[in-house]
Amino acid sequence: MMTINDYLKLFDEGKLTPEELLESCCSKIDPDLNAFITVTKERARNAIGSVDGKIRGIPVAVKDNINVKGVPTTCGSKILKGFIPPYSATVVERIEKEGGLLIGKTNLDEFAMGSSTENSHFGLTKNPFDRERVPGGSSGGSAVAVATGSAIIALGSDTGGSVRQPASFCGLVGLKPTYGRVSRYGLVAFASSLDQIGIIGRNAMDVGILLVIIAGKDPLDSTSVTVDVQDYTDLDGSLEGIKIGIPEEYFIDIDEDVLEAVIEIKEILQDVGVSFPSVSLPTSEFVIPTYQIISYAEASSNLARYDGVRYGLYHSGVNFSDEIRKTRNDGFLSEVKRRILVGSFVLSSQAIGEYYEKALTIRSLIKKEFKDALDKVDYLLTPTTPSPAFKIGERFDDPLKVHLSDRLTAGANLAGIPAVSAPAGMSRNNLPIGYQLMGRPFDEKGLLSIVHQVEKIKPFELLGE
Ligand code: GLN
Predict the structure, then answer these.
(1) Probe ligand 1: pick from 113, 165, 405, max atoms within 8 Å of CB?
(2) pLDDT at 299 > cutoff 60
(3) CB count, 10 Å around CB of 38?
(4) CA 238 to centroid of ligand 1, rounded, Å
(5) CATH hierarchy code of domain 4-243+380-457
(6) Rounded CA gap, 215 and 226, in Å?
(7) Domain boundaries in the chain?
(8) What spacing in Å lies between the alpha carbon of 308 and ligand 1's midpoint?
(9) Beta pairing partners, 158
(10) Pocket lining: 40 vs ligand 1, CB cutoff 6 Å
């Protein structure tokens, strides 16, 4: 499978030009799949050749909740209608400085709230492996862009699984870095203590190449940290002697094909000298309720800024509160409204002790449990999702069912640890399956090394390759 370095080599040898690669990516944009909200081909074309960096001439797609100066940011919502950010997110600046070409802004569940990319004002995105199924979410557009070759790599955001879950549904590698590893400046906030910008790529090497560029302290984001950025492209270190824990709680009620595929990954790793002590994470049953309370609470506060005055959509009314009511009622879809209502409730004086404060206490228990487990073993191996991609519409009216598909991913957000999803194989009905690895804070290099070495033993062929 081609890596970004292979494309750069073809450029250097004169066998391919960045213009040709951009043209070929754009020709693969399929309107029926609806991966993009805005295509910025002209911007990409104009940037060709102006910078000679680490990813010169490589088309990159960006989830449409990350700001690109001069290009509309919609967050998949009507409420930001007409909003054009006057600045770029730090990650976008860093990518452009290294010669990356921004090919477009990708579709998402409104404000990144969802697991299927069905909740977008701009229509749903379809899974290219089976158009009757969802691509996952909320970074579904980014995953589909990469899976179809319309972009070589893409940025997403991951609050409870939104990078890893669509990567797993589309046969890709999706990395959620450690909280603070990557600047959030210019990412539209959903739940600030959980949000992290992540990367969706076709292989571990590509993800490593992009992470080297976007990771590191940013003075514009006080939650970004000064911990050294490692060489995430140096992925060939031996796995001999590494310990990977298999938490039994993450293997309950899992689709049979998924179980088989993840066990196969375990066997591959066993053959190269990895051992698998058993570990237990008993608080995992509280991950989803805790995630829901904390993320809704933070969302209700973060989304208060969309009042019709500061950004985008505005409806006139008889007084200010009437204007706000009309604007927010028309601007948000129902899932976002539901979360704002529940989030405001759990923060209200009568409920804060019963809900929000309890959730914070349980969050620290969950965090401690991950820390204790990761003191004993180096990594944790689990499925990324309980089942492969589900049918469009199947879970649309059942928010709890949608949330339960994140029950294996949201723990890493609550604990702030890094996690990656990578292809484990295909299901009987030909849908991609992902395995997930979680690690200690700032060990993105270790996670990507394992994925890279599994890729060498069990290569995953993308659509059309
Ligand atoms: N699916 C989860 C939710 O609906 C996670 C979303 C995300 O990671 N942005 O909240």
Answers:
(1) 113
(2) yes
(3) 17
(4) 34
(5) 3.90.1300.10
(6) 10
(7) 4-243+380-457, 283-362
(8) 25
(9) 196
(10) no
